[in-house]
Amino acid sequence: SPTRSSGSQTTNSSFMCQSRMDLHSCAAAIKRWLDHCESTVPQAGAVLIGGKSSRMGRPKHLIHHPSGETWLERSLTTLSPFVDELFISGAGEIPPVLRDTPRVDDLPGVQGPLAGIGALIRERPFSSWLVLACDLPKLQAPAIAWLLNQRTGRYRAIIAKNPSTGRSEPLLAWYDYRSGPLIENLIASGGSRARELVDNELTSQPWIPDDLAASWQNVNYPEELGSRGPSGP
Question: What structural domains and CATH numbers belong to the chain?
């Protein structure tokens, strides 16, 4: 493949297969180049808050983990090593320690988590997004690492499937910067469920490994705080 010299650095500017016998090595070179390009896309992360929490009876993002942090604080702490920027998505009171964390308002007139996801995509249209709900008290870093390892250049979103329920999990998921049109089309059609994003060939749905599935386990009722409540930090 030809190269272009820039000062003391040499960079690939294009790829050329010299013969049919060279197709496999050429394809491998292109794949490496595309993977490199993908790795340079800014990665943002956000925790969604502002749901009604009617079943819990109080804002879930303000519930305290045994570590002493609120669920919101702990979610942001767990997310931080994997992203370039952190955001809080949605309305509601937040702990004073997070007052300097950027916030993004939900899209007006849009219902459900799509109001937050859509707003995030518009806020940083050239960033890819790690998005998670605030009510995942068993969230662990290895689950996020596994999710990111499922990325390929083909897919616009990685929305994993839960082995316990068989359901897709769009509220601990990765959204490529190219997912914007998919999300905008769903919003324009009146969709309100982020799970509807799985109904296309541009979304990957890998099965969550059993040993990581607890990270996707949300909590809705006060009585679940004991039996399905937070693990240690």
Answer: 43-227 (3.90.550.10)
